[in-house]
């Protein structure tokens, strides 16, 4: 069975997760890991099982055995490494976002197209078995024509101010996953977007022109309406729920709890909290997204989540911020002259 030989750029938390998943995969072979500092890998499972551990990206990109790169470095380096990898004739998997600047992302996608390589963006929730079943149910027309799409996405605890300072804002950092999920479930582009957002958890976020709580409404080209509610702090756990309501029924996915046990007594009914950490909640999805990436490269099949999907989600994050700043509904057509849509 053919495997895809890959290298990882960036060995922080998510890079190490991907490395460990790849080392257990039958579809991928991990040839190299690169990071600006590799001291934290000494003596690790990764160091013991990966042939090349390096601080030199060129060593990875010049290796003819490596067919694809997995980019898990800081967001401000994504676009540079994507372009370098494309020019080196490597296929690319990159964590979201491609960049924090939509014009910069346009340039990245131009380089991808010119070099004829594939780019998958790390919207791992598309590969979650629950959300995928919701999407498949919508596609099968079991619930008829979608009319309402509801997404609740709430983190268990807020990020640090240091993190907020460099994250690019909640819409680009957190809600971007929900924008992608909305497009995935609706199978339609967004026509307009309106945001009501504030700081009720940590007012200091406003120092960085950021928010921690939001309600976002959208209209889709197919006529459906969408709503996303975001919070940076859900004290009961990592709250991830979706629902699609159609003219013939409704389909929804609830949270994953620690167990599905429910205890009912005369006094109360109780059950476990939702899983608390995103790496725990989406553990299987992280594995699946890389296995499907490998299959798409090996068999030359279409990617489930493309560079254009990353671009469209970034446009929605940009429009959401603009809606909040200008206190009005933003029509996506307003952005088309700035950020034209092309096939990618």
Automatic annotation (TrEMBL):
GO terms for molecular function: inositol 2-dehydrogenase (NAD+) activity; nucleotide binding. It is an enzyme of class 1 (oxidoreductase). The keyword Transport does not apply. It comes from the Bacteria. InterPro entries: Gfo/Idh/MocA-like_OxRdtase_N, GFO_IDH_MocA-like_dom, Myo_inos_IolG, NAD(P)-bd_dom_sf. Belongs to the Gfo/Idh/MocA family. This is Myo-inositol 2-dehydrogenase/D-chiro-inositol 1-dehydrogenase. Gene3D superfamilies: Dihydrodipicolinate Reductase, domain 2, NAD(P)-binding Rossmann-like Domain. It comes from Geomicrobium halophilum. PANTHER family: BINDING ROSSMANN FOLD OXIDOREDUCTASE, PUTATIVE (AFU_ORTHOLOGUE AFUA_2G10240)-RELATED (PTHR42840:SF3), NAD(P)-BINDING ROSSMANN-FOLD SUPERFAMILY PROTEIN-RELATED (PTHR42840). Residues 5-123 form the Gfo/Idh/MocA-like oxidoreductase N-terminal domain. Keywords: Oxidoreductase. Pfam families: GFO_IDH_MocA (PF01408), GFO_IDH_MocA_C3 (PF22725). The lineage of its organism: Bacteria, Bacillati, Bacillota, Bacilli, Bacillales.
């Amino acid at each position: 069975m053919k495997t895809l030989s890959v290298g990882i750029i960036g060995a922080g938390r998510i890079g190490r997760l991907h490395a460990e998943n790849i080392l257990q995969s039958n579809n991928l072979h991990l040839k190299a890991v690169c990071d600006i500092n590799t001291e934290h890998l000494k003596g690790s499972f990764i160091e013991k099982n990966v042939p090349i551990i390096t601080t030199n990206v060129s060593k990875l990109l010049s290796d003819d055995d490596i067919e694809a790169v997995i980019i898990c470095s800081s967001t401000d380096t994504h676009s540079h490494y994507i372009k370098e990898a494309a020019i080196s004739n490597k296929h690319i998997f990159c964590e979201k976002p491609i960049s924090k600047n939509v014009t910069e992302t346009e340039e990245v996608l131009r380089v991808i197209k010119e070099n004829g390589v594939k780019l998958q963006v790390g919207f791992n929730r598309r590969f979650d078995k629950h959300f995928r079943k919701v999407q498949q149910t919508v596609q099968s027309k079991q619930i008829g024509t979608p009319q309402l799409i509801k997404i609740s996405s709430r983190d268990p605890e807020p990020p640090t101010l240091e993190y907020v300072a460099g994250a690019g804002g909640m819409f680009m950092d957190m809600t971007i996953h929900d924008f992608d999920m909305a497009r995935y479930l609706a199978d339609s582009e967004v026509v307009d977007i309106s945001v009501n957002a504030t700081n009720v958890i940590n007012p200091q976020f406003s120092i960085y022109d950021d928010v921690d709580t939001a309600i976002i409404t959208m209209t889709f080209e197919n006529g459906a309406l969408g709503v996303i509610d975001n919070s940076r702090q859900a004290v009961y756990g990592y709250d991830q729920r979706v629902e699609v309501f159609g003219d013939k029924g409704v389909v929804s996915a609830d949270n994953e709890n620690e167990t599905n046990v429910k205890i009912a007594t005369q006094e109360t009914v109780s059950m476990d909290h939702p899983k608390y950490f995103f790496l725990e909640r989406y553990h299987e999805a992280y594995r699946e997204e890389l296995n499907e990436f490998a299959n798409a490269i090996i068999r030359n099949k279409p990617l489930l989540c493309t560079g254009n999907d990353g671009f469209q989600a970034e446009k929605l994050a940009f429009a959401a911020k603009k809606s909040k700043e200008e206190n009005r509904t933003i029509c996506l057509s307003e952005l088309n002259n700035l950020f034209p849509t092309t096939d990618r």
